[in-house]
Write a structure and sequence with these properties.
The chain is mainly alpha-helical. It is about 85% helix and about 0% strand. Helix 1 packs antiparallel against helix 6, helix 2 packs antiparallel against helix 5 and helix 5 packs antiparallel against helix 6. The two termini are about 20 Å apart.
Length: about 160
């Protein structure tokens, strides 16, 4: 093995471990947010505030920092050999698919803003439909993140000859 190949390989695990851990944090946070918003039973304004507070804390302290780490270390992995990776179809599809979780983040953020406004105005009757929309958005984000992770792990040829 050449010295250059050894040095590149030596960096890869140090970048892959944070990517794997960040992906686990993001997926775990999204699943938790989805479960809380789907099965959390709230009847009073105080219960709704507790439920929404827990969900907001998941995003603030787990999901968003996990996404930032995931994007940072994923970009560093890509920059190791960008010409090689950007020619692979699985990477092209993965990069296009990354737009979905990012767009869904902004959708969830907008919904959470509406939910907080409804709570501030004590409109608990609107909370059910808003939380349903929020849950659907979390579920879609889970699906998108799982697809991105699977593409990165399986690296399918997608009709490209000679890829592994």
């Amino acid at each position: 093995m050449s010295e250059e190949a050894a040095s590149v390989r030596g960096v890869q695990p140090w970048l892959q471990v944070p990517v794997i851990l960040s992906a686990a944090v993001v997926l775990g946070g999204l699943v938790s947010a989805s479960v809380i918003s789907r099965f959390g039973s709230a009847r009073s304004l105080e219960q709704w505030q507790t439920l929404v507070g827990a969900t907001r804390n998941l995003f603030r302290y787990a999901i968003v920092p996990g996404v930032i780490c995931l994007l940072l270390f994923g970009t560093l992995l890509l920059l190791r050999r960008p010409r090689v990776f950007l020619r692979m179809r699985w990477m092209q599809v993965k990069l296009v698919l990354l737009a979905a979780p990012i767009a869904l983040h902004f959708r969830a953020r907008g919904l959470m803003h509406q939910i907080v406004q409804a709570l501030e105005q004590a409109r608990t009757k609107d909370m059910g439909s808003l939380m349903d929309s929020f849950t659907f958005t979390c579920d879609a984000a889970i699906l998108a993140v799982v697809l991105v992770v699977l593409l990165g792990r399986l690296k399918p040829a997608l009709g490209q000859a000679g890829s592994s």
